[in-house]
Amino acid sequence: MSDSNISSVRTRFAPSPTGLLHVGGIRTALFAWLLARQQGGQFILRIEDTDQKREMQGADQHLMDSLRALGLDYDEGPDIGGPCGPYRQSDRLERYQEWARQLIDAGRAYADPYSPEELQAFREQAQKEKRPFLFRDHRPENPPAWDGSKPLRFKSEPKAYSWTDAVMGKLSTGPEVVDDFILIKSDGYPTYNFAHICDDADMKISHVIRGQEFISSVPNYLNLYEALGLEPPVLATMPHILAGEGNKKLSKRDGAKDVLDYIREGYLPEALVNFIASMGWNDGTEQEIFSRDELIAKFSLDRIQKSGARFDERRLLWMNGSYVRELPLEDLYAKTINTGMAVEPNAAPQAGSYWPEAAADASVEYRMHVLELVQERLKYLAELPELTMFFFEDLPVDPELISGHKQLKKLEPTEIKELLQRSRDSLAESDFSIDDLTQRLNGLLEATGQKPAVLFSLIRIATTQSPASPGLAETMHLLGKDRSLQRIDNQLAAL
Predict the structure, then answer these.
(1) Across the strands, what pairs with 43?
(2) Of 196, 177, 173, nearest to 16 (Cα)?
(3) Tens of pLDDT along 202-236?
(4) Contact assessment for residue 65 and residue 259, using Cβ atoms and an 8 Å cutoff
(5) What residues does each domain of the chain span?
(6) What is the band of 19 on the pLDDT scale with cuts at 50, 70, 90?
(7) Residue 13 · residue 29 · CB < 8 Å
(8) Closest Cα to residue 65, out of 85, 55, 79, 48?
(9) Do 242 and 24 contact (CB within 8 A), yes or no?
(10) ∠289-293-296 over CA atoms, to 5°?
(11) pLDDT digits (tens, 9 = 90+) for 121-171
């Protein structure tokens, strides 16, 4: 395929199918996607499945589902093909043999004749002498011809390097970090260090965006690029994502979830993309909420920060809530009733229905009214049952809602009962329109001399058996007169 058929900007996301996709990997994919979309280039998905022992069943499908769930569409990949395939490393083994033969013929690769025990002895000797272990110190003088039964090693030419990272800036190292690393293992599979360089060259990748853990290996990569006669792509190193406290790299133990778990819990893809983009990148302004088009227009590698970015789940909740509040009611309702996780090509997974089981028999119109009331308080869709259960079923009286209430627990039981009875008597005369309920509630405040935190909390607890609800008048209006008064009677009986 000729270069003229390929855009000059080609980025890739190249995960290993050894686990589920978490926020760090998604950020790498997102930044590569944003750069490609901004420059009118291509974004490629490549599955790096050379570590057969650690591969997890179904992880590759999970990776593709996760990208689609967030709307990160790729132009070439293992399930859709493309002009530079195959896009799965296990399908490219013959190509690695060709690249390896090129190095062998140039005298830059050799068979490693040592057993694991001999290698361990070399390491222990270096440790005893308090010097770093370098394999090149033990290069065999007359290595056997490589027949695939032994690992194939790169014959490095150690030298000092300086290079410019698109994020980290000017970097440099001495020759002591360049060593003879394995290119192809004895099982016939290439190592990451070899395969990704071959693949990036074959796929004409222009920008390599990856995590900070690879930065120490760059001098070895540069040495290999030279040996293969390749011009290195633009290298861009992502800083670590840190745990909430900001003192260590984020891990599963810190609550980092699989990205599809966030989707299943009802986090909106647009909010997740916005949140992930803001971890380590900003456009130099105070703006926090970005549309997808704005992110594409404003993204640049030179605005990525060099230091670690903190994963703040409270900020994600706030941001998702902002997106939920901005949705038209009909669109939000549609998201609450989706079922199943779709895996068809180019179709985003959809989360299950979020309504409580008790809502199954309620009309669409009633559910829409409920959703309209709670939309302001809804931070993610899986909260819906907790926020709306009392609209669909009569919950048992919970004495702790009063005894544990900061204001109500100060009142004597007789005071509470008298206050609730007076409220019931007034509400019984209401037509239960929102205007009339509002007037009566305000009138009760004047008549009883109580604060809203006392009177309204008591009526809310009696009518909802919940510590919080939308506006009280709006809630009772939707519940209806008979249901509201019956619930107050139940609370009075319990008192």
Answers:
(1) 11
(2) 196
(3) 999 999 999 999 999 999 999 999 999 999 999 99
(4) no
(5) 92-238, 394-494
(6) confident
(7) yes
(8) 79
(9) no
(10) 95
(11) 999 999 999 999 999 999 999 999 999 999 999 999 999 999 999 999 999
Write out the two tokens for 57: 């069943």
411 exposure class (CB count in 10 Å sphere: 0-12, 13-18, 19+) = middle
CA 413, 419, 425, 428 dihedral sign is: negative
Average predicted confidence (pLDDT) for the chain: 92
Cα 460 off chain centre by? 37
Task: Give yes or no for a contact between 194 and 224, defined as CB atoms under 8 angstroms apart.
Answer: yes
* Residue 342 pLDDT grade (very low, low, confident, very high; cuts 50, 70, 90): very low
Query: Phi and psi at residue 481, in whole multiples of 5°?
Result: -65, -50
Question: What's the Cα-to-Cα distance from 469 to each of 43, 151, 266, 391, 483, rounded to whole Å?
Answer: 46, 66, 20, 10, 16
Same CATH topology for 92-238 and 394-494: the answer is no
Closest CA to 21 of 279, 269, 210, 259: 259
pLDDT, residue 340, reads: 41
- State the residue for tokens 């002591």: 176
Only one residue has tokens 């009063």, namely 402
Count the alpha carbons within 13 Å of 98 in the hemisphere toward its beta carbon. 7
Fold type of domain 394-494: Arc Repressor Mutant, subunit A (1.10.10)
Domain 92-238 of CATH type 3.40.50.620: yes
Which residues belong to the active site?
252
CA 18 to chain centre: 17
| Tens digits of residue pLDDT in 364-397 | 999 999 999 999 999 999 999 999 999 999 999 9
d(CA 85, CA 80): 10
What are the tokens at 207?
């920008």
Q: Is the peptide bond before 86 cis (omega within 30 degrees of 0)?
A: yes
Whether the CB-CB separation of 458 and 419 falls below 8 Å is answered with yes
Residue with tokens 């978490």: 22
Per-residue pLDDT, 339: 43
